[in-house]
């Protein structure tokens, strides 16, 4: 596209699109384009992606969809949490709920998408970024790939379909990831099935070009796949599977401290720093999520998120971690034992108003 001549064109500059959705040969190409914000999702981005995916689903010229993030730091670091917190604090919870409702509907669309959906993930992939990648058919991890679901550390919970996906990871690794927010690189992601392929970052351009030319995704990705080496998490898998098989968060922490190893102590310390309410919610999510289908998991998550703004931990967690960055959240309640079963159950109760329509 030609640039306007700054000497002759005095019209105001148009704001840059936050996501670019375009046809590229035989592919629909979605580029998250907020690199300065680590490509964090906004409601406008969710809506643009939904419109593009709906348009391409029945288009015979589009053989697959490719999703990528601009810049080298992040595929997508999550939803734009600060905007959501500002809306909640200002007494406009409907704005935040509109984002989550449409984001979750987008996640469900991706999970059932009728064409290959290829996420090219290089850099940070957390929260909402997981939601727009993990449920697609192909998750391609570059060398800078970094996965995490760190929500319990900001008084939130692992959403965007994590209730369904994490309990289905090998052993008890899903619960481990939900309660710790642990970060995984390429080798672990491939071993656990979070990624379907590991490729050199420099191969992304060639992969995209071949997909746009109409080549079959499985063949293209097989040509570029590489062994990322042994997964570091394997050294702790036996301990994770044993300890995280307990019946409560408190029992898991007790077992970790009883283990006596430095690795177990560090995991216990990590969990104990998280929001007690969020930990209880996440544990229950993983328990229920293992028994329900994807769409019911999304409806369950929307019930939880519809109540999250009524509490205090989400606001306090965002303040401590993302705004003031003092890393000293004051959780309420402050102890696991003070979070009642009744309080946890209330997050999961059916909504009086509209449920998620998936």
Descriptors for this entry?
single chain; 2-enoyl-CoA Hydratase, Chain A, domain 1; 9 strands; disordered N terminus; alpha/beta; globular; 3-stranded parallel β-sheet; 358 residues
CATH architecture identity: Alpha-Beta Complex
- What is the overall pLDDT average? 94
Within CATH, the superfamily carries the name: 2-enoyl-CoA Hydratase, Chain A, domain 1
Q: What sequence of helices (H) and strands (E) makes up the elements?
A: EEHEEHHEEHEEHHHEHHHHHHHHH
Q: Structural class, please? A: alpha/beta
How many separate helices?
16
User: Rounded to an integer, what's the Rg over CA atoms?
Assistant: 21 Å
Q: What share of residues are in beta strands?
A: 5-15%
What overall form do the CA principal axes indicate? Answer: globular
Biggest sheet overview: 6 strands, mixed
Low-confidence stretches: 1-14
- CATH fold category name: 2-enoyl-CoA Hydratase, Chain A, domain 1
Q: What is the total domain count?
A: 1
């Amino acid at each position: 596209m030609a640039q306007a001549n700054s000497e002759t064109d005095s019209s105001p500059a148009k704001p840059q699109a936050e996501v670019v959705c375009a046809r590229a040969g035989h592919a629909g190409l979605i580029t998250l384009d907020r690199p300065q914000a680590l490509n964090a999702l906004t409601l406008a981005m969710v809506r643009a992606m939904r419109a593009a995916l709906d348009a391409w689903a029945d288009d015979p010229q589009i053989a697959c969809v490719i999703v990528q993030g601009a810049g080298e730091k992040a595929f997508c670091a999550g939803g734009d949490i600060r905007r959501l917190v500002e809306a909640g604090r200002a007494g406009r919870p409907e704005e935040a709920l509109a984002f989550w409702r449409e984001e979750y509907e987008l996640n469900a669309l991706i999970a059932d998408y009728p064409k290959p959906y290829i996420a090219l993930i290089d850099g940070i992939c957390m929260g909402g970024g997981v939601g727009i990648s993990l449920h697609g058919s192909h998750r391609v991890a570059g060398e800078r790939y970094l996965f995490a679901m760190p929500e319990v550390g900001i008084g939130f919970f692992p959403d965007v379909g994590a209730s369904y996906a994490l309990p289905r990871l090998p052993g008890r690794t899903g619960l481990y990831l939900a309660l710790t927010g642990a970060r995984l690189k390429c080798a672990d992601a491939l071993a656990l099935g979070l990624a379907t392929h590991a490729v050199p970052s420099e191969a992304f351009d060639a992969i995209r070009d071949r997909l746009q030319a109409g080549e079959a995704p499985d063949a293209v990705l097989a040509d570029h796949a590489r062994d990322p080496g042994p997964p570091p998490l394997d050294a702790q898998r036996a301990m994770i599977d044993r300890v995280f098989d307990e019946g409560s968060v408190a029992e898991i922490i007790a077992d970790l401290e009883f283990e006596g190893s430095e690795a177990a102590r560090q995991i216990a310390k990590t969990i104990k720093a998280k929001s007690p309410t969020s930990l209880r919610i996440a544990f229950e999510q993983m328990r229920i999520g293992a028994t329900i289908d994807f769409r019911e998991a999304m409806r369950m998550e929307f019930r939880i998120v519809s109540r999250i703004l009524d509490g205090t931990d989400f606001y306090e967690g965002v303040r401590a971690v993302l705004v003031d960055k003092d890393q000293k959240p004051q959780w309420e309640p402050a102890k696991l034992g003070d979070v009642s079963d009744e309080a946890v159950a209330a997050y999961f109760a059916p909504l009086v108003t509209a449920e998620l329509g998936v």
